[in-house]
Each structure stands twice: as structure tokens, then as C-alpha cells.
Amino acid sequence: MRNFENISRIKVFIKDPNKKNFLKIIKEVCILLITKKEFPFYYFKYLYRKNVKNYLDYLSTKEVVAIGSSKLLHKPEYKALFDNKLFFALFVEKTSLNTPKLVSYNLGNSFYFNNSIEKISNKIELVSFFENVFTASNLEGLFFRPPSDYGGKGCFKLTKENLRKDIDAKYEIFLKGCFVHTEIIKQHEEINKIHHKSVSTLRIISLITPENHTEIISAFMRFGVGNSVVDNSSSGGFFVGINLKESTLKQTGHYLLDYGGSEIHKHPNSGFKFEGFKVPYFKEACEEVIKGVKVIPDRFIGWDVAITPDGPTIVEANDGPHMFMVDMGHGGLLQNHHIKKLIRELRTTK
Fold it and tell me: Which of 145, 165, 183 finishes a domain?
């Protein structure tokens, strides 16, 4: 699988009409080889393009690994909260953070709701369970996520209206898997103008500095395409960087190389142009993230935040927030003096 992905990425690079000329590519690769002290394979993911003038401002593979693996930044005690969505949901229930309500969950055929457990052995029992959940919770639908998968894999919705039909289709998946069942997030109407089929979440990066200050380092927004119920770039969606000071989307959206690596300036379904769009409640989302850091004081976290009509809600937190996307969305993280200082800190504490 990895070899197939690498071949696909090489094909994108070779066919890309927007790449720099061959001599310039060789020159920049040599400079990176000398300055970063590693062969810059990462250069061929994005930095080879004509519009990337500041290629030295992007993190190298070693620097990305250093951030992700540093015991200085990440405490092993917190890892279960990042890796397991059920643990995270149960944990934040006890805090003041705004998060989607955990309604129920299942571990195989054991279904949990309102402090009771039901063993499900057939479709009739499963339909009955969710009818009870919908009635008792006064809900019309639920959103399901596997606790340990990432990138939006395995997510789906279940609605009261189509319950029996949905159960027919998902019965085997339910009983063989584990799922976190949460309220469906109602998205802000301004964001729905861009895309309404899935919730478009912000990825906001927080850093606790050596002086113990929490800083918002970078942010981007993810969008789904077509009828997908998830916005993840690793599931075929794309992402757009956010101007932190202005709370606005940047001009360009990016697909990952696995999905062609193209750049776009408007949503492929709605035709909505990104540049200048003011993200509703963005400052409040950053404030909610800072509250989140007080609850989970890991030094480097990527927070996924949805924007509802009433404000931000934290969906999950990640200790590995896809640094390649963060770097691209920011336009080179080494432009940020906190990141420069962090890299120096990591080098001196090996």
C-alpha cells in the first residue's frame, strides 16, 4: 500500500505543469540537503511548485518527527485521550468544554445508553434500542465514529426517519465494530453556504511555550466534497488555510497528493470562493481551544472544532495533527517565531 501511494505521488509530481524548472529544483534540493542535513523527500510533495518561493520556511521530515515524538511536548498519560474518541468524549463530559453530546456507544453487541447496557442479538432489538434512544433524547439522528480510526474512516449517520433501512444496511457493521454515538452537529448557516453535506471543521494548533503561555500557532479549515458525511482531506476532501489575525480563509484550497494534489480557489460543488470568507466565531474557537489546553495540558495539540449557530464546539484533539497539512495551510510554519524557537528547543534537549 505504501509503495502504491509513493508511486501515485511521483506521478502527480511528474505530470504537474506548475513545477519549477529542473535546474531550480536541483538547486533548492541541494540547499535543503545542506541546511536540513537530510535528503528532502518532502520537497516533492508540494515545495517543488512555482508559487512556493519560501521553501526554507517549511518543516523537514526530521523536524516533523521531532515534534510528534518529543517527550518534552507529549506526555504518555494523555495519549489515550488523543487516540480513542470514546475516552475523549467520556473525559470531556466532566469538563466545561463545549463538545457534541455523547448520547450512547457500543462495544460490539454491547450497547450503552443512560447508564444501562443491552446485549443486541438481532435487527429487531437494535431498531428498538435506537427508537428508545431517539425518543428519550428527543433526537432525529445520530453521528457514529469508530473510537480509534482517523481521517473520517468508518463514520456515518443514522436517522429516526430512515432507521429500519439504515439498520438493515449497517447491522453487521454495528455488531462487529465499536462506535461512539453523538448528537449530529448543526453547522453555522454561513459555512453551509460553502458546503452543507458535511460539517466543515477547523484544525487549530495550540502550543504551550517554555514560558508556559498557550499560543495559537496556526489553523486551517477542512471541507468535504459531494455527498460525503466527513470533511477529512485523507478521505477525499480538501483544506484551506486561515489568516489568524483576520479570521478569514486564504485564497487557495489544497487536496492531498493521494487525491491528485490540485489547488482550488472555490468549492467544487457550490462554487463558493474561499478568499476573504470570515470564519464565524473564529476568535471564540481559539478561546475554547485555550480552555481545552487547561484541561489537557499537552504542549502541542491539533484541535478539531466545529462552528454551530451558537458558537464553537470541540470535536476531538490530536497529538499528531498532520503536520504536512498544517505547514501547507500556514504557508511555512518556520515563519512563526514560536515554531522556530520550538525547533531550537527540541535540538538542544535530545
Answer: 183
